[in-house]
Amino acid sequence: MLIEFNKISVQSPIWIFQANKIFDLSLIKKIEEDTINFLNSWTSHNVEIKSSFKIVHNLFLIISVESDFSRPSGCSIDKLINFVKEINKLHNIDFLDRLSISYRHENKIKVVNITEFKELISDGLISKETIVFNNTLRNKGELNKNWETKALNSWHKKYFNVQ
Length: 163
Fold this sequence. Notes:
Structural class: alpha+beta
Helix content: 25-40%
Radius of gyration: 17 Å
Largest sheet: 3 strands, antiparallel
């Protein structure tokens, strides 16, 4: 059952899927339609899941489940991942590429692979102060507070030899 994203409680789990490229408005419309159809039929042990999504910066698909209503099981999470894989195939994008990193540069969002990210650090173009997207967050409250953060404050800090 699809609900508004702003009605999802802060303790509710989220999944942040980052695409490997920024997509245009026509692709956003297709992904939105596919996601609405999926979430309206998503169940866990034959119980509907109250869930929502949003697409942010033409790059991220964020899905959340209202934890006060239902909890997704392992099988329902598998359904979610299979749905994302299907979107990847249908629209020639990759929401499951864990080697892509996104960050802000001159108020634009850039997507690079880890190797390029490390090179940009070496070249001094990315610093500990660079705003990155920490897609490892677990709940909506973290999304609201810690998603866009300095590299120093996220898992990215390991590339700067910072403890």
